[in-house]
Amino acid sequence: MTLAGALALALAVTALGLAPFARIALPRPRAAHPDAGALGEAGWSRPLWQWEGVRAASAAALAALSVAVGVLPIVGLAVGAALPSFATRLRADDARRSARRARARLLRATEGAMRSGTALPEALRRACDGIDDALARRPFAAALRAFDLGGALDASLRDAARGDRDARARAALETVALGVAARLSTDRAAQLVAAVADRLAFDERLDEEVRSRTGGLRFQVLLLAAIVPCLAAYLSLTVPTLALTLGSPLGRTVLIPAAVVLELAGIVLSRRAVADVVR
User: Fold this and answer.
1) N or C, which terminus of the chain has less Cβ within 10 Å?
2) Residue 228 lies in a domain
3) Radius of gyration for the chain, computed over Cα atoms and rounded to the nearest angstrom
């Protein structure tokens, strides 16, 4: 037992002495930026540190405005930090909807080229050249680049599907990849591409129907969000006690910040309800 303890102690001392000379590459987890995907879809091509500079400037400006009007600075900081992300996600949603329509046209053009006897890679290349929407052709162009470098077309399409944030684009790419892996003839592959294009067109029509039916309710939410501060300002001018309450520490630190948070939450939740349906 004494000998075993001495050997263990010697091994521990030896390992401790050799530790500074060890070169072991430990994996470092990489945290993805929460706005990276939305920025890419919105067309932001600059470094992320510049985006953080825009966010910091927005937060500082609204914090200074909060101090000027007597509201807690933390409210201005929070709203100013969240406002650029909110605007970017709105623009990314618009770009994604436009890309969905363009993607259906791209697959229709691919089908037409395949009906005339063109192979799928060349048909996709011609269709991508005829589409101006960069977001719609991005996954197909990435798959074609990997194919030109010697990769299998089905594997390239699957890799491009994994890198796309749109669930419908992933489904379309994976379906076309299944057809390539099955080695379908050109006519059968054209039928498969046509079926995928039909599904994308149907989903787009369904989205438009949902948005048209809920457009009035979403407008009412925005209208109510605009009426509340206008009504508060009017009552503050006509009712002195309300103006004193809103100007007191309770109003500046509790009532006004809570109203701002509730206004923003209502707008975000109304948009999220529609986005969850048409996703």
Assistant:
1) N
2) yes
3) 28
pLDDT tens string 172-212? 899 999 988 988 888 898 999 999 999 988 888 888 887 78
Percent of the chain at pLDDT > 70 equals: 84
99 falls within a domain? yes
Q: Which domain holds residue 125?
A: 55-278
Q: Is residue 128 part of a domain?
A: yes
Number of domains in the chain: 1
